[in-house]
Amino acid sequence: MKRLFLVLALLMASPVMAVQPDEVLSDPVLEERARDISQGLRCLVCRNENIDESNATLAKDLRLLVRERLVEGDTNEEVVDYVVNRYGEYVLLKPTLTGANKLLWVAGPVMLLIALGIGISFIRRRSVATEDEVALSEDEQKRLDALLHE
What we know:
The protein has helices spanning 2-13, 28-39, 57-71, 76-87, 100-131, 138-149. It is mainly α. The protein has two domains: 13-91, Helicase, Ruva Protein, domain 3, CATH 1.10.8.640; 100-149. The termini are far apart. The model has no long low-confidence stretch (mean pLDDT 81).
């Protein structure tokens, strides 16, 4: 029983890599660079999984593309730029803080501040309305007493 538990724990603890043996480069330095780049690129099929861990066909194509560009002599930045130019910034797991992305990064906190402002003004208006309530006039009080005593 202990052995089974140990085997299951080891299997669950080890990361599952989808890189096939035929994809691995013979140069260990280039392979390490390819793995580093692949960790930062999103699988477009699996959404929030990097291409190194994905079994999707598109992820395999991207892994091969990265390795092909490295063999051709591109730097890591040139490889990432090439993939981004080809597939868009969505392919990056950590998007850059430039252009339209600035708007997306700022939109959340700005909307939170706007919602807080609306909530605070609503609460203040409600508390002012309750403070402004006035007592009934004599005629209104008499009519109310008459209705309650019926």
